């Protein structure tokens, strides 16, 4: 079988498996967030946390919960890194430097998992487990909670109550993320992923030389790293490292884990709003863009134009033999279309078009299908903009799912959508004007600019993958990328919760003949067009100087 | 502001409880399950032993170095962008073993002049080593992998090395070719991933056949 045919069947297998779990997992997640009872372990968490699980929160209090939780998470994660010498399994790696610790704390709390450090050298197993694994769970849980709060804005009427952040956070973790991660961590070990508490294993190679091969508790972190759309590798090479992703089987399992929750959340949404076709409309917009970008990235990597790849005979620089072009392109599309940022190949070595494709995937705003929870709320916000645009065209007050979209709602949606481009363009623009910047880049010319643009795109979208040739250890990069990650996460969350509050307060208006139906192919196309248009109008000049220039060279 | 402080305090308590559940019980629970027979070997790195001695991991590629380059008995792995500097010129060697206690790719783009030069040089070195025309050298032999520790090479690169390995080990090409076949992993279910030849176990099998 040719590589291309096998690759296409591989994509088909992925889609079949996703389709098979779509209904059961989507409906299960809807039940998780509507269930009136509590599990025993949840009661323990509420009691120890002194949380009143029966109370409801207004949007400012819900937002204060998210903000407060993020703040203490950053502080605690920073301290865990700084205090590494006092923890077991530190292997003498010492206290993590303040710049790295600050950047990493923000990175993992915001679900970005941008890494400015070499894990095998800097982070011991206690920091990985107590600090980073925990944030892999809770940052995904927080995103999920915000998405559910926004959905409640649509389903509830004439109320100030959006639910309880602590209950939503706890349930998402205890009932969804933790059991799935446990099962898939074991599956990954059975397929070859390591789960060791040793720092490494000493071997005598066949040629007589000696080596130490790094080990880590990888499987437990790998499962939630993909399932929670986090992306931070326990090894420097991330999912390209054979101990994180040893073969074609694990590669598919990991891609499945990356996609499964964001995809199934559209079913959860449809179920909760009482019209599943509303969810299908969102899913088809996500699917069209995801498939389109897969085609672009795959084709570009199979038809390289750079002299290095042409001389070598194929674009295998920065790719692993066991994945080849199709398995690498599929992973790249999945990881950048969600806000994951794990990599099984080095995006910096991709072609202009292929690397530009991964960048555009993020610049769509991480909603194809996006991160856990963040993907759903991002596409709902874009749907509001799409309905608003349609309303402008026909001169009617726009409404979506029975809620009128007035000034407040559209303003909140616009703030949520425009914060990311502002951060990307300002951050990358300032960085490239700094005289020292070229010294931090592995490439020159348009590819060097791509490294800078990719960094700010990845940080502001909370993706975390990199054109990793860029050295980001300077104070400017550590702090500015940290700020982009933080604002890129919190501004949309605050806007979304404000939006949710104002939607919940409205009464439902019945659909009339003048209401734009939002469950059919027409709306799905309009939504797809809005995603593309917003990204294209904002970013074409920046992309033209980097990946587009390289693709046309 | 009062509300924010109150929520942050609640967040601190919840986070501490969740840290016990997710940061201790979960990873150590997975670790405990991984001690089961059938999982333990994988969990500790799929280590290959010979006569009780750990000689590497089935999943990690470390390029063997020939004592006498003119008589090189080894199958070679793909290049690593973070190869050790054995020739002492201050830069990672173009070909040769990496340090498996870390991992990385080159992160060079397709138009990078250094990368073009590296690919060209590797093509010539490999062609000279195998006694073939540079045009016959496959792509994976001259490009650095993403991890720098790629355990596998393409069947084409293995085939290119068969005549030399057979000659230097006093084996027939058919014998060596059969060993290559035995150490080739196909696609999962026939479609997942790409076929690859596992270099470490292949080299061990060649040495065993020679004895």
UniProtKB/TrEMBL annotation, chain A:
Question: Which InterPro entries does this entry report, sorted A to Z?
Answer: KdpA
**Would you indicate the residue range of the signal peptide?**
none
> Looking at the record's lineage, which domain of life comes first?
Bacteria
Q: What is its main location?
A: membrane
Topological type in the membrane: Multi-pass membrane protein
Keywords, in A-Z order: Cell membrane, Ion transport, Membrane, Potassium, Potassium transport, Transmembrane, Transmembrane helix, Transport
> Could you describe the subunit structure of this protein?
The system is composed of three essential subunits: KdpA, KdpB and KdpC.
The UniProt similarity line reads:
Belongs to the KdpA family.
Protein name as catalogued: Potassium-transporting ATPase potassium-binding subunit
Species the sequence originates in = Actinophytocola algeriensis
From TrEMBL, chain B:
Chief place where the protein resides: membrane
Please list every transmembrane segment annotated in the UniProt record, as residue ranges: 12-33
Pfam families (UniProt xref) = KdpC
Cellular component, GO annotation: plasma membrane
Q: Which InterPro entries does the record cross-reference, listed alphabetically?
A: KdpC
Identify the keywords attached in UniProt to this record, alphabetized. Answer: ATP-binding, Cell membrane, Ion transport, Membrane, Nucleotide-binding, Potassium, Potassium transport, Transmembrane, Transmembrane helix, Transport
Keyword Membrane present in the record's keywords: the answer is yes
One example of the protein's molecular function in GO is: ATP binding
**Location of this chain's protein in the cell:** Cell membrane
Q: Which domain of life is it from?
A: Bacteria
The UniProt entry lists membrane topology as:
Single-pass membrane protein
Outline the subunit composition: The system is composed of three essential subunits: KdpA, KdpB and KdpC.
Into which family does the record put it?
A: Belongs to the KdpC family.
| Role | Part of the high-affinity ATP-driven potassium transport (or Kdp) system, which catalyzes the hydrolysis of ATP coupled with the electrogenic transport of potassium into the cytoplasm. This subunit acts as a catalytic chaperone that increases the ATP-binding affinity of the ATP-hydrolyzing subunit KdpB by the formation of a transient KdpB/KdpC/ATP ternary complex.
> How is this protein named in the record?
Potassium-transporting ATPase KdpC subunit
Species of origin reads Actinophytocola algeriensis
């Amino acid at each position: 079988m040719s590589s291309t045919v096998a690759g296409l069947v591989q994509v088909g297998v992925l889609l079949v498996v996703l389709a098979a779990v779509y209904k059961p997992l989507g409906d299960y997640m809807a039940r998780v967030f509507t269930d009136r009872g509590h599990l025993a372990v949840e009661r323990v968490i509420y009691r120890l946390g002194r949380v009143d699980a029966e109370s409801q929160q207004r949007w400012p209090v819900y937002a204060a919960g998210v903000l407060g939780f993020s703040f203490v998470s950053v502080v605690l994660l920073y301290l865990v890194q700084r205090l590494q010498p006092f923890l077991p399994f530190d292997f003498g790696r010492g206290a993590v430097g303040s710049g790295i610790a600050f950047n990493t704390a923000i990175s993992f709390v915001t679900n970005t998992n941008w890494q400015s450090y070499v894990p095998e050298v800097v982070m011991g197993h206690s920091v990985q487990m107590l600090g980073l694994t925990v944030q892999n769970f809770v940052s995904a849980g927080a995103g999920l909670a915000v998405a559910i709060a926004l959905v409640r804005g649509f389903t509830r009427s004439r109320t100030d109550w959006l639910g309880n952040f602590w209950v939503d956070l706890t349930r998402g973790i205890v009932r969804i993320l933790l059991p799935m991660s446990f099962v898939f961590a074991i599956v990954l070990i059975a397929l070859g992923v390591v789960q060791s508490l040793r720092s490494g294993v000493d071997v005598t190679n066949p040629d007589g030389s000696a080596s130490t091969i790094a080990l880590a508790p990888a499987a437990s972190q790998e499962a939630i790293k993909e399932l929670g759309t986090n992306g931070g590798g326990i090894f420097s090479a991330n999912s390209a490292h054979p101990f994180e992703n040893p073969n074609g089987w694990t590669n598919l399992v990991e891609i499945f884990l990356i996609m499964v929750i964001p995809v199934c959340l559209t079913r959860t949404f449809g179920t909760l709003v009482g019209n599943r076709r509303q969810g299908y409309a969102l899913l088809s917009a996500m699917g069209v863009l995801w498939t389109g970008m897969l085609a672009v990235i795959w084709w570009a990597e199979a038809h390289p134009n750079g002299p290095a790849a042409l001389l070598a005979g194929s674009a295998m620089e920065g790719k692993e033999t066991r994945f080849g072009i199709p398995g690498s392109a599929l992973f790249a599309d999945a990881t950048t279309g969600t806000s994951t940022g794990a990599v099984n190949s080095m995006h910096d070595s991709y072609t202009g078009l292929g690397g530009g494709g991964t960048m555009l995937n993020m610049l769509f705003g991480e909603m194809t299908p996006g991160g856990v929870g963040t993907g759903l709320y991002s596409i709902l916000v874009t749907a509001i903009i799409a309905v608003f645009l349609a309303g402008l065209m026909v001169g009617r007050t726009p409404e979506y799912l029975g809620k009128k979209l007035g000034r407040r709602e559209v303003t909140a949606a616009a703030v949520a959508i425009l914060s990311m481009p502002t951060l990307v363009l300002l951050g990358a623009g300032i960085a490239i004007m700094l005289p020292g910047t070229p010294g931090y880049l592995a490439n020159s010319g348009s590819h060097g600019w791509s490294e800078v643009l990719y960094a700010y795109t990845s940080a502001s979208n909370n993706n975390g993958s990199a054109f990793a040739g860029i050295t980001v250890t300077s104070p400017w990069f550590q702090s500015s990328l940290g700020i982009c990650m933080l604002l890129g996460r919190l501004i949309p969350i605050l806007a979304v919760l404000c939006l949710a509050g104002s939607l919940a307060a409205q009464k439902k208006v019945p659909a009339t003949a003048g209401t734009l139906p939002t469950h059919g192919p027409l709306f799905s196309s309009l939504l797809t067009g809005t995603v593309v248009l917003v990204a294209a109008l904002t970013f074409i000049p920046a992309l033209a100087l980097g990946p587009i220039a390289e693709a046309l060279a | 502001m009062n509300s924010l402080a109150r929520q942050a305090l609640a967040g601190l308590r919840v986070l501490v409880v969740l840290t016990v559940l997710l940061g201790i019980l979960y990873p150590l629970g997975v670790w405990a399950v991984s001690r089961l027979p059938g999982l333990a070997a994988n969990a500790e790195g799929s280590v290959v032993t010979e006569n009780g001695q750990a000689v590497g991991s089935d999943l990690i590629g470390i390029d063997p170095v020939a004592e006498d380059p003119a008589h090189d008995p080894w199958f070679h792995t793909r290049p690593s962008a973070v190869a050790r500097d054995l020739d002492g010129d201050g830069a990672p060697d173009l070909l040769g073993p990496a340090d498996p206690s870390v991992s990385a790719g080159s992160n060079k783009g397709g138009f990078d002049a250094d990368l073009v030069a590296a690919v060209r040089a590797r093509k010539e070195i490999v062609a000279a080593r195998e006694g073939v025309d540079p045009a016959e050298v496959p792509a994976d032999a001259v490009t650095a992998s993403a991890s720098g520790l790629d355990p596998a090479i393409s069947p084409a690169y293995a085939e290119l090395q068969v005549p030399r390995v057979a000659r230097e080990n006093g084996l027939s090409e058919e014998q060596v070719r059969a060993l290559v076949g035995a150490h080739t992993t196909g696609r999962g279910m026939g479609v997942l991933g790409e076929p690859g030849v596992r270099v470490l176990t292949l080299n061990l099998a060649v040495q065993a056949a020679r004895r």
